[in-house]
Amino acid sequence: MKCFVCKQGETEPGKATVTLERGGLTLVIKDVPADVCKNCGEEYIDEKIVAELLKTAEEVAQSGAEVDVREYMAA
């Protein structure tokens, strides 16, 4: 797909690191599947995966953690 940000590059399958912050929590999830622009590096993550990440973030927030770093694992 054509990149919406730079309007120059095409995306290709790759990996992203997602950082989510809420209140006092910082959650970093590595190796998230994404389409990445070959020109500018913009990352596009499928909405199903985003829903999984947000669910994980909610669980981590409920646990009371302040910082959590994990590797993406498909549900």
Describe the protein's architecture and organization.
The chain has about 80 residues and is α+β, with helices and mostly antiparallel strands. About 25% of the residues lie in helices and about 45% in strands. The radius of gyration is 14 Å and the shape is elongated. A hairpin with a 2-residue loop joins β1 (about 10-20) and β2. Strands 1, 2, 3 and 4 form a 4-stranded mixed beta sheet that branches. The protein has one helix at about 45-65; strands at about 10-20, 25-35, 45, 65-70. The chain contains 1 helix and 4 strands.
Structural class: alpha+beta
Question: Based on CA inertia axes, which overall geometry fits?
Answer: elongated
Q: Approximately how much helix is present in the residues? A: 10-25%
Please tell me the overall pLDDT.
95
Instruction: Give me the number of helical elements.
Output: 1
Give a count of the beta strands, DSSP E runs of length 2 or more: 4
Beta content: 35-45%
Radius of gyration (Å): 14 Å
Largest sheet: 4 strands, mixed
Q: Write down the secondary-structure element order.
A: EEEHE
